[in-house]
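User: I need a structural model of Pyridoxamine 5'-phosphate oxidase family protein from Streptomyces brevispora for a docking pre-check later this week. Nothing fancy, just the predicted structure tokens so I can convert them on my end. Input:
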Amino acid sequence: MSTEEELQAIDLLGRVPYGRLATSMRALPFLTVARHIVIDGRVVLRMHSGLGYHDACNGTVVAYGADNFNAATSAGSRDLWSVQFTGPAETVEPTPAQRELFGPVPVEVNGEPFTPAFLRLDPHFVSVHTLDFNATRHSPQHSVI
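Assistant: Understood. Predicted structure tokens for Pyridoxamine 5'-phosphate oxidase family protein:
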């Protein structure tokens, strides 16, 4: 990855720990949460193996997106962004040092013990979207009737 947009996307991705993986399983779309790190320009994901999503993604094209929407709105930030990476994914086994970069693992997923599975996404398409609000303009207030 080398374009300015790709470098910006990697920088933004490093600002949040989790994102959403999207693909299809048995011809139906699905979306799941994953923890990410970047190694050698590729996005490496950690997810729970018990759901089988990593098997559905292995060898297929997936999309992975992350944003700062929740963090920005709770912190009062006026600059929102989202990034998306699309490309082929394959299951991998990270080195112990790479595993440490992910940080602590969740204890459970849906009541069962968390067992990690790892995917490497080789981004072929990268997009960055930003929402900048003019601080001098007031946004309309929403009211409940």
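Before docking, keep this in mind: The first strand starts at residue 18 and ends at 25.
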